[in-house]
Amino acid sequence: MPEAVIAPPAMTMRPEPKPWILGIHAYKPGKSTASDGRALVKLSANENPLGTSPAALAVLHDHRGEAATYPDPGCSALRAKIAALHSLDPDRIVCGTGSDELLNLAAQAFAGPGDEVLFSIRSFAVYDIAARRYGAAPVEADDMNFTANVDALLAAVTNRTRVVFLANPNNPTGTWIADSEVRRLHANLPENVLLVIDEAYAEYLDPDASGIGFALVAEFDNVLVTRTFSKIYGLAAERIGWATGAPGLIDVLNRTRGPFNVTVSGQKAALAALGDQEFVAASRKHNSIERDRLAKAISALGNHGLSAVPSEANFLLVEFKGDVQATDALVALAEAGYAVRHLPDPGLEHALRITIGKTEDMDRVIATLRGLCGEAA
To answer: Which of 177, 176, 173 lies closest to 318, judged by CA?
Structure first.
């Protein structure tokens, strides 16, 4: 009788991700609860403290009954409304699931293994993720006073650079560079490098302060401008963003985006929000008043080591370089009922990003910081 053949032990196999995926540090959203589970007022995600336009809220309520139908895949009405508001060509606009989708698609389409994606240090965390997601190497350029440094960005460009991300105003610092500097950056980039200008907070600027992004888009084939409805329009829950660029760029993004990437309710709410520019103006005014008030209160605590980075967005980056530490303020504000953003990863261990909230929220934040510094409320 032949000897039985004993099979070798089965090898344990499993799917393995691409090696560059394991280099991604997952995006961490702003907290909304304390360590003990208490709900906190969320001043950690740069949401609009005035909420959402009543016109957009009414649309969201009225159109929930259309959940069984697919949305318009091209967001035709929404693109037409955006174009009319900003004097753009609707055929040169693409909508996305928040501007995040479009930022990722730009990296996917134009960078990959062996390429580099360049951005300023202490800028939006999604840029690093977008680069690594598609195998490209993220490259950080030094900033200057928490502001994008055009000379440093240009010095970091190599023959492997394929995409440059510029947040203007910048998150998490709130700083902004002038039109002349944006144009200088673009003028000195190789023509085969895509410049992506992320204008998520542009509506918080004075309406006459900047139009360089749209101007560059009209002139050149290698500029993409992204915007979002998540901030001043107060539609973060609906995840709606848009981008404008040369026809070739928009064609590429349309080829790679999700086919029904903006919901029915989202499209209609965004249309209504665009039609309520009074709400946008009121949000901008509220933000300016309360941001300036918080900045002045922080300045008054300068002898305790507190200072605020000048901001053009709807938040302040507050530094703590005295006896009061950022972690002390983080705990004190949580005890007072507020969640703010501590961002140690980009080298901001000593700072907190505080979203501008309602007037009463800013009153309490200021009082808490004064109390922490031993000052009378």
So the answer is: 173
